Amino acid sequence: QVQLQESGPGLVKPSQTLSLTCTVSGGSISSGSYYWSWIRQPAGKGLEWIGRIYTSGSTNYNPSLKSRVTISVDTSKNQFSLKLSSVTAADTAVYYCARDESPRRGFDPWGQGTLVTVSS
Amino acid sequence: EIVLTQSPGTLSLSPGERATLSCRASQSVSSSYLAWYQQKPGQAPRLLIYGASSRATGIPDRFSGSGSGTDFTLTISRLEPEDFAVYYCQQYGSSPPLFTFGPGTKVDIK
Questions:
Q1: Which residues in chain A are contacts of B32 at CB distance < 8 A?
Q2: Which residue intervals define the domain Ig-like in the entry (chain B) (predicted)?
Q3: Distances from the Cα of B2 to the Cα of B91, B100, B104, angstroms
Q4: Nearest beta carbon to residue A104 from set B1, B33, B101
């Protein structure tokens, strides 16, 4: 079955750009009609959807983060990526990637998550 | 933006008991776009219910979802030891496209 794995630096300095990659295994990222999302969770807090990309490359972003977020896809590597610019300590969180077939079907599966700390 | 509120914040129950978790939306949500997740410490969330009442693949039938409009419920009919976790509801709104999550309900052992 499809599995997702996040990767990227665990420490980012304030004002810099956070960059993460999600590698999809067990299936092609471009097969089927799927959306690929990023979701984050600060320690001890709830979940926040960051944005998603469709297999065609079209994107949707959370309006609260839209000015700082870029999500892209690399079908040749079976990966999609997140860039979040001008980070502050408030962006410290566990970042998850996840798939959804449609908004009717929920997010499934999820990656295991990766902790990103914003600190100098 | 639709805001989801979950109650109670914490539910203390014993194994074998019935758990009833509430998710209330600030405005009407399409039932098709309401999901529930379970999260254990150090793990990613796991999809339990989508479309308000459909169980995801592999989810035991002790988990059930119901509701419509602004009020939704997740019921665990008989708590098993592995069910003690945090549960989140999630909705999707299309204008603009936006997924939001509730703050969660923690089910812990009494």
A1: 103-104
A2: 1-90
A3: 8, 7, 16
A4: B33
